[in-house]
Specification:
alpha+beta, Alpha-Beta Plaits, 2 domains, three-stranded antiparallel β-sheet
Amino acid sequence: MARAEIKETVEPVDTILSKIVYIEESLGILNEEEGEIFLEELKKEIKELKKSVDNMKLKLLLSGEMDRNNAIVNIHPGAGGTESQDWAQILMRMYLRWAENHGFKTDIVDLQVGEEAGIKGVTFTVTGQYAYGYLKPEAGIHRLVRISPFDANKRRHTSFAAVLVYPEIQDDITVDVKEEDLRIDTFRASGAGGQHVNKVSSAVRITHIPTGIIVSCQSERSQFRNKELAMRIVRSRFYDLSIKIREKKLEDIIGDKKEISWGNQIRSYTLQPYRLVKDHRTNLEIGNVDAVLDGDIDGFILEYLKSVKIVKNGVNK
């Protein structure tokens, strides 16, 4: 094990132990005169301790070959037009906020904006240790139930969006993507960006013809840089596909790519007639919907990883 990896493992444990000692020593203060003024501070310390312990538990569950890699996330709406496109944008915000809260760097590689609202699709990268390991449980169909803000009659609508998660492949891994199997198109970038967006064909779309993999990138001003980023994602998806086809376990790494419709969802977000988020794989329910949509999804990630580990070990949950 490399020195950096040892340090990465030991330091969080030392931090947790130090926090436990501090909290234990601070408990005595509460019994002293006017000690209750320290109660809120102590509650905050306990909350931070719980968060640190949960993060440690998560890392212990991440032992897959690609878990330490950066992640590539793709979100696209199901049928339903503006309603589903708006839901896809809400999910994008949820994951970007989650990444921000965890100190991960994110880059939007390709964003297709809807005509009225929402997005037709987005691809973004999440850079940081274990980004893929953390996000892989999020792959699947996500369902939203709410009173539609786009319905003048204020009726309840159900929307679906698909989330796909891929590990980013490092440069030291050989991926045999042949030039003759690629079709590379350039086009003008869409969305905000001023004159550069309207006049320069800097965006790049790469199609891997044998597999049908299509990757677009328009985040950079340089066509060369967009092509480089798009090619990195093509390599990652091709490698991912090759490995999983060989193992016949495609769903394990990108999520079950079922029809984006009723009955296929991994999680439901209900805003009406009650407020609840439920993961259908683990049956975990969280009532604080606003916190979840603001990126607080660690509970779902941890519970899913625990359930997968139990199944792999042959133990009934």
